[in-house]
Design a protein that fits this description.
By secondary structure, this protein is mostly beta strands. Keywords: Signal. This is Chitobiase/beta-hexosaminidase C-terminal domain-containing protein.
Amino acid sequence: MNRTLDKLRRRGPRLAFVATALLVAAGLSAPAALAADDYTQSVTQLSSTQVQLNFIPTTPALYVDVHYTGVPGLGQQNVRMTNSSGTWRTTVGGLSSGNVLDYWFTYEKSGPQYDTPHFSYTVGGGSTAVAAPTFSPPGGTYSSAQTVTISSATAGATIRYTVDGSTPTASSTLYSGPISVPNSRTVNAIALKSGMTTSPVSSASYTIGTQAGCPTQSDTPNFGPNVRIFDPSMSAATIQAQLDTDFTNQKDTLTAQFAERRVAHLFKPGTYGVHDNVGFYTSVAGLGQNPGDVVINGDITVDAFNASDNGVALQNFWRSAENMAVNPSSGNDRWAVAQAAPFRRMDIRGGLQLYPASYGYASGGYIADSKVSGQAASVSQQQWYTRDSALGSWNGGVWNMVFSGTSGAPANTFPNPPETTLATTPVSRDVPYLYVDGTGKYRVFLPSLRTNASGPSWASGSTPGTSAPMSQFYVVKSGDTAASINNALAAGCNLFFTPGIYHLNQTLNVTRANTTILGIGYPTLVPDNGVNAMQVSDVDGVRLKGLLFDAGTTNSQALLTVGQSGSSANHAANPTTVQDVFFRIGGQIAGKATNSLIVNSANTIIDHIWAWRADHGNAGTVGWTVNTADTGLVVNGANVLATGLFVEHYQKYQVIWNGQGGRTIFFQNEMPYDVPNQASWNAPSGVAGYAAYKVASNVTSHEAWGLGSYCFFDTNPAVSSYHAFEVPNTSGVRFHSLLTVSLNYRGTITHVINDTGGVTPSGTVPVNVVNYP
């Protein structure tokens, strides 16, 4: 690449545009486009003197420039195009019939920018594109249902449309007259005419009825058959029998890991003498306002329970413990888990063992807002992250143990021993949680935002925050559909998801600021027919907690999107939080999704997610061409913070960070196991393999601490990745405490970050980089 252009591109879209114009003037160009399927382009003749140039990138672009000649009296023009819902457009005037436009595009894709070939268009002749549809009334917020008219400026064009979030095609519903929009939804449309190029997709999002307020719900709701509610007046034997029955059903790694059963154990305030072994898809939580309101004289335990586990806890996924005090029966509680198993708001009055009784491996976990009076011991855990907590002491560290805002944490000594410690967490907000007030009514507590936090939020007695009655929550249970859930959202309700599996034939639209969506017992959202599962508008204060998105068998473009493309509002005072939200591609079903999570809203807090393209699962649900998925996380918003980021096995970049001012504290990754050969897995830049964590080349401010990426190219150990972390070489982009490992020497990673750090050796030995640059 031209060295001068490379320096300019690192300084953002505006200078990139200047660089493009200078290069074009000098007869130089950016790299050629990767492939035609990177984009579609078209020309729409608007009048006898005007045409519209359209460009739709397959991957959302930060900028698109168009260059053209052929306007009488003008030389070459270089114009920054305008983005409209993913379609970039520019109008060219001053034309006459017979004028020939020569035009080409320069577009950003995941950091680098590329040039397309030249295209030609003759004004008033040849094939033209149909004018894009328009909507009346336009998208927006309305107090009641709307009747929407769709039209195209091209005479004789037909229109096809969808209302479920999917992209319309020539076989979608034919528009024949005004359509009713009774509740919140997005209408997408295309216009077609024989002999002409199909129009770009037009979109209009309608929010209906949010001004009315949520119809009053019950303050003592029926949570359905999968929620067990225990009261201290019940006998210990009765409670224990129910716990044991549920554990028997949820225990086995071979039969329960991808089963459909979901369950929650909720303990009302009081003291209990029980032992709760926690299996798959099980949430255990206290219903007090603070952890000490529910006391367990016994244990809340996860171990390597099954003979098939062979003494390791590498597959102990999808289970949680929250908001209780535990007096362990042996002096130590055991929580030997891997991914997607949060341990929050727990008061352990003794020690906490994060490893199996057999001392076998576990692959990484997460603690937040908790207190352990004794020693927390990781022993055989590969990586671990502890946030805003208090520990008596800590023992252990295999590859990288990360702490922020945690008293009793070890000193920052990475890599020997491999401990990464930050004194505070820059921004955090504890999760919303269900509790019972003094009158027996259910409420949801909404903790306040904290900056430079240290220690549990409840360390002084109670967590600061506000409380919302269950009368403002719609309880989602078996039998609910996407339509009924969207109706509740449109009416102004928050959502409380009970344990279950929910198939969605339309996108769930979260459009109201300060909406809380809280799940217990791993409620699982499955998009059908290729719709995107959930879209959150670019508004303040949305809280998402405790959801599992499981990709459907028809590819979705994204499972969860926060903010619309191009969102730019500042939400620093009241950000959206995505907490204990997990994504799965394959495993239970042969799922497909291009992206799992896209974050467009600024200041979003991503607090403990596991985005997982399954490497194992039910028969027929896993394979390189079966459970397909490009990227786990794409961040386009500015000043986004990730605390506890687990992303694994995606087929291209695991994480793409395009937004300025991003920060990550703790990242755990495994590259895809099943790459068939090197030729099928080379990055667009031409280097071997895709980086696990890519910061776009135009980003000038980004910082990350405590990152690990592992390779295990089991299908073909000859495969390699040039580097695990790909970042711009600029002083504002800084990485600390990062490592790579080749597991059992199945393939190699040549460098840790850019060209720094050696090749992964045999023996499952890490290669460490303390700071970069």
